[in-house]
Amino acid sequence: MAKPEKIKKDQDTAPAKKGGKKAVAKGKDSAGKGKGGAKEEPKGFKARVAKAQSAKQGKPTKGGAAKEKKGAAQFLREVKVEMGKVTWPGREELIQSTLVVLLAVVVAGTFIAILDLIFSRLIAVIS
User: pTM for the whole thing?
Assistant: First the structure.
């Protein structure tokens, strides 16, 4: 079994997948303060930081909340486009799904009716 290698302070560390430690740029400590050398950032890092900061401050971001101010006509056009993308069920699938739902309602209703009968008799016995 090979021994795990120790990471030196000046080495780059790979970013963790989820919930792990943050990547440390070469020549930087965890606070981002320089020990010399240029700051290295992952691609898109500045954009993600700017978006996160503006979200905290409640400011609209590029492609974010600013899109909400389009108007009713634009909204309806987008609804029409999205409804065209929907895969609608055929007649057989619709009938089958309806029967499944009706059967589930009957089973649940019967179960609740039986429980109601049991509890009402228990209350009648107690009082």
Answer: 0.38
Cα→Cα distances 93→25, 88, 96, 102, 103, Å: 56, 10, 5, 14, 15
Give the torsion through C-alpha atoms of 107, 109, 115, 120, to 10 deg.
-150
Query: Which tens digit of pLDDT belongs to each residue from 68-77?
Result: 567 999 999 9
Give dist(CA 79, CA 70) in Å, integer.
13
- Which one-letter amino acid corresponds to residue 67? K
- Tokens for 115, please give them: 């429980």
Alpha-carbon gap, residue 104 to 101, rounded angstroms: 5
Contact 12, 25 (CB under 8 A): yes
Q: CA–CA separation, 102 vs 110, rounded Å? A: 12
How many helices (H) and strands (E) are present in the chain, helices listed first? Answer: 3, 0
Q: CA distances (Å), 118 to each of 26, 68, 70, 127, in order?
A: 72, 53, 57, 14
